[in-house]
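Why does this matter for the project? Reviewers at the last site visit asked to see concrete outputs rather than summary tables. In response, this paragraph embeds two records directly. Each consists of the residue sequence and, immediately after it, the corresponding structure tokens. Nothing has been edited or filtered.
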Amino acid sequence: MLRDGLSLVSAAETEVEVLAATQKIDVFSVPDPARDAERARMGLLGALAAEPSLFEPFHGTPSLRQVRRCLRKQLTWHHELERRARAAAGAAGAVAPDEDADAPPQQPVAFPALVVISPGRPETVLDAYRCEPAQPGVYHAVPGLVTRVVVLAELPRTRATLMLRLLGSGRVLREALADLAALPDDAWEKSIATPLLIHFRLGTEEPAIDEEDEVSAEIRAWVEEYERKLRAEARTEGRREGRSEGRREGHNEGRREGHNEGRREGHNEGRREGHNEGRREGHNEGRREGHNEGRREGHNEGRREGHNEGRS
């Protein structure tokens, strides 16, 4: 009835096969409940990843047609997740093999959110999907779409938005790079972003053009400043290590020299003290021996004189 009725005013067909071209999701994230505390420290990025989500970042402000392609990914992916859930239940013997392929699985599959990341404000998209501001720089579409639009140029310049602002360009990227450089060396943002920024710079052998040239120049400038900082820190650390090694070596050399000098001085002092002690002991011994010899000689002389006097 629908076909025949619509045929009066249009070209109407039935059982039209829908063939979807293969698409790839930029990033699909499923939160780990055991890491809720870590995710909470990640600011806005962690908040956006609190539910299964497709992340679709754009280099330029996306058009309505481009966002529709993302919505097609979202719907197709949810359909695939449900198919996998049915297949897993069937393998476990919970579902009959001939069950309707479009029937919902026994265990509901969460509909994934779509996060569109745009450098500028996509007015057409925001109007078409009745997006309302949820917080500065973040818009939510009508509830049924489960779609968020992040406008990088409107995000506040805080640490909570840093990882997302690093996806921007121009002023947004320059400020994000400056904020990244100001973080402590052990900041989690640095552990993620720095290796990628360095790789991006080293992997760019040919000069880019247009907007990419500006982005490349900003990242190259940041990497060069970062490398200068590393060299300065290495020099400072080398100086500290050199001073420490010098102190240790000087201490050891001083001990050796002091030991040698002490031995020499001790030897000389010992000779002098030994000489003096020897003179004193020799003097005393000489006096004792002289006294004894004098007594013996006096005794003998006295005996002789007494003998002679007795004879006379």
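We now turn to the second protein, recorded in exactly the same manner.
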Amino acid sequence: MSTTGRASTVIRLSEEVADALARGLPVVALESTIISHGLPQPRNLEVAAELEEIVRRGGAVPATIAVLDGVARIGLDQAGLERIATQPGLRKLGQRDLPVAAALSACGATTVSATAFLAARAGIRVFATGGLGGVHRGFTVDQDESADLDTLSRTRITIVCAGVKSILDVPATLQRLETRGVSVVGYRTGEFPGFYVHTSGIPIDWRVDSPAEAAAIMKAQDALGGAESALVVANPVPPADQLDPELHDRVLAEALAEADRRRITGQAITPFLLDFLVKGTGGASLEANLTAVRGNAAIAAQIASYWSKEN
């Protein structure tokens, strides 16, 4: 069996996505963990539909990605979205989990690493999400680093995000992205976003001020060749919609202290800290996250539209 034939058995594009790609129309990938693990029911399904509608209003075709019964689905119909939103025990799948899920006919929502990988395999160039994973605080002790970084170092995708999750070591994450050859630009900002807050206070070397400039960088990536690394377009949440910075810093410090007291480490640390932030801010951190995702989806659609005109 050919490589293409094998891929067709484990990766399936929706008719709409396949048609758009065949015609050179803009497509934006969306991850599914925000639906399955990030929001309560029934709001999660409402947000899933909202994000797809934002992409459509921006002139692009949305491709929400997930794995259902072992098949990576690139673009979900209503039934697929409902399964991701309501099916109990749904797994969180990173890139490393995809072959296992395929072989065992498992179901799962895709994280940044899995979504980026599958989008690129399908021929989708632009991906919108909330925030990236990265280097965890205390890395010198426990060597905890998100698989997102490794995937982005070898995946030609443009990912629009609000920076990296603020529970992480942001300077170390930016250094790692530089080491691994991942280009990072600020969208109308010279400072790296702070995920829940407008800025992390850390300057970045490059900025773009329009979707057209981002698409031009994508074209230059291809023209230059070299490693198939990603482009990170860091788009900050607007100051008026950010989580209050003082509240953020106070609750995050409390969360880190509590995690240390309970000796929570490894894969358990991220969900613990994020849940602590949601509860400690009265849900304000979640609302800031959703505002960021909405903005990123809109900008991703614009970038994808410019990119499709270039090709």
